[in-house]
């Protein structure tokens, strides 16, 4: 049989054309709602903002909103305040993504006593309905309290050395977070938040806080001019910020974002800290100073208002409608290894 006599090239072209057309129609009109990360094998990619059909929520306005506070930075990152997001809509967009949020917390020495309240209140308010993996770094694993975790939430205890200097404990966090991202977190989570343990959650801290690189405005300095920010001012330090530069003063009690972005941040800050140490310099506020320097030139993609980092000794101010996370009042002489 001679196949070539019946073979019509235009039939083949027609069949290929029909397949291409069907593929185009499928990907144009149906795949929009698949909500896959752009590279499924890699964690921490950008997902589509897919909202479920028929979800009822308040109509957003372009004219009415918060006017008492600034809700966007000059580089167009959102500043998250109560009233700038719809929690129902945000949850419905992010929950189907099945994200895992790593949460690191250091409880070295006597700070282990803050863990129970931190974890119990996190279970009530922090990323509720999401997969959360707590990583507790401590030199006292036997003193880590047993706290009931809801479904989808796990806790690992990682032993770290103690120290007789609080400055060293606080500063070493960058290095330990960096190495733990390398050894396990990058395989286990999409986003990461690194938080201070001597704090409690008081209200929702949810998916509105997710972003590529997330920082929080320190509650002590949000109404100050940059000249009053306690940045590192010595040019010899790698954390140096000149007097006429600076956006906000960010709190060291929270660093967040995609695991890989926080990995880069911790790597850079840890290295700069080491350079300073080699030159016998310790930045004014240790890792917080290096964090502020990093964020000045690597702008955060989302900024959390002081609602996400308050301090219990501070009276609530009129701009702060909700206190979501706040540092407890502590007796430094009692809990720190040195004064
Ligand atoms: C501020 C910052 C904190 C950090 C520090 C300067 C805010 C609100 N707080 O808080 O993030 O930048 O100044 O270094 O921005 N820790 C231990 N054991 C210790 C000491 C510290 O585990 O003995 C850990 C613990 O997780 C604690 C964190 O380090 O939450 C910060 O240390 P801090 O409580 O001494 O810092 P604080 O409250 O002065």
Automatic annotation (TrEMBL):
It is found in: Membrane. One of its GO terms (biological process) is carbohydrate metabolic process. An alpha-L-fucosyl-(1->2)-beta-D-galactosyl derivative binds at residues 218, 288. Its main location: membrane. Gene3D superfamilies: Spore Coat Polysaccharide Biosynthesis Protein SpsA, Chain A. Binds 1 Mn(2+) ion per subunit. GO terms for cellular component: Golgi apparatus; membrane; vesicle. UDP-N-acetyl-alpha-D-galactosamine binds at residues 106-108, 111, 196-198. It holds the Pfam family Glyco_transf_6. Its cofactor is Mn(2+). The active site is at 288 (nucleophile). Keywords: Glycosyltransferase, Manganese, Membrane, Metal-binding, Signal-anchor, Transferase, Transmembrane, Transmembrane helix. The keyword Glycosyltransferase applies. Mn(2+) binds at residues 196, 198. Belongs to the glycosyltransferase 6 family. This is Globoside alpha-1,3-N-acetylgalactosaminyltransferase 1 (FORS blood group). It comes from Oncorhynchus kisutch (Coho salmon). The lineage of its organism: Eukaryota, Metazoa, Chordata, Craniata, Vertebrata. The gene is GBGT1.
């Amino acid at each position: 049989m001679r196949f070539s006599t019946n073979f019509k090239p235009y039939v083949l072209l027609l069949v290929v054309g029909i397949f291409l057309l069907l593929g185009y129609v499928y990907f144009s009109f149906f795949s929009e709602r698949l909500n896959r990360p752009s590279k499924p094998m890699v964690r921490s990619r950008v997902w589509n903002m897919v909202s479920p059909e028929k979800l009822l929520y308040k109509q957003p306005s372009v004219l009415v909103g918060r006017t008492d506070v600034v809700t966007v930075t000059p580089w167009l990152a959102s500043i998250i305040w109560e009233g700038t997001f719809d929690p129902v809509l945000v949850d419905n967009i992010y929950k189907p993504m099945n994200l895992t949020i790593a949460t690191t917390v250091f409880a070295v020495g006597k700070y282990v006593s803050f863990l129970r309240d931190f974890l119990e209140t996190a279970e009530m308010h922090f990323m509720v309905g999401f997969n959360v993996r707590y990583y507790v770094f401590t030199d006292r694993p036997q003193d880590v309290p047993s706290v009931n975790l809801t479904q989808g939430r796990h806790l690992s205890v990682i032993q770290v050395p103690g120290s007789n200097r609080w400055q060293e404990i606080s500063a070493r966090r960058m290095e330990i977070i960096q190495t733990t991202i390398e050894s396990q977190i990058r395989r286990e989570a999409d986003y990461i938040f690194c938080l201070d343990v001597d704090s409690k959650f008081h209200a929702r801290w949810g998916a509105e806080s997710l972003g590529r690189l997330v920082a929080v405005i320190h509650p002590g300095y949000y109404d100050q001019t940059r000249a009053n920010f306690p940045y590192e001012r010595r040019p010899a330090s790698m954390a140096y910020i000149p007097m006429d530069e600076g956006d906000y003063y960010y709190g060291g009690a929270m660093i967040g974002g995609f695991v890989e972005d926080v990995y880069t941040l911790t790597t850079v800050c840890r290295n700069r800290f080491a350079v300073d140490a080699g030159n016998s310099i310790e930045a004014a506020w240790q890792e917080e100073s290096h964090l502020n320097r990093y964020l000045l030139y690597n702008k955060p993609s989302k900024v959390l208002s002081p609602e996400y980092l308050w301090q219990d000794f501070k009276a609530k101010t009129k701009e702060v409608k909700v206190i979501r996370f706040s540092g407890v009042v502590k007796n430094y002489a009692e809990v720190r290894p040195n004064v």
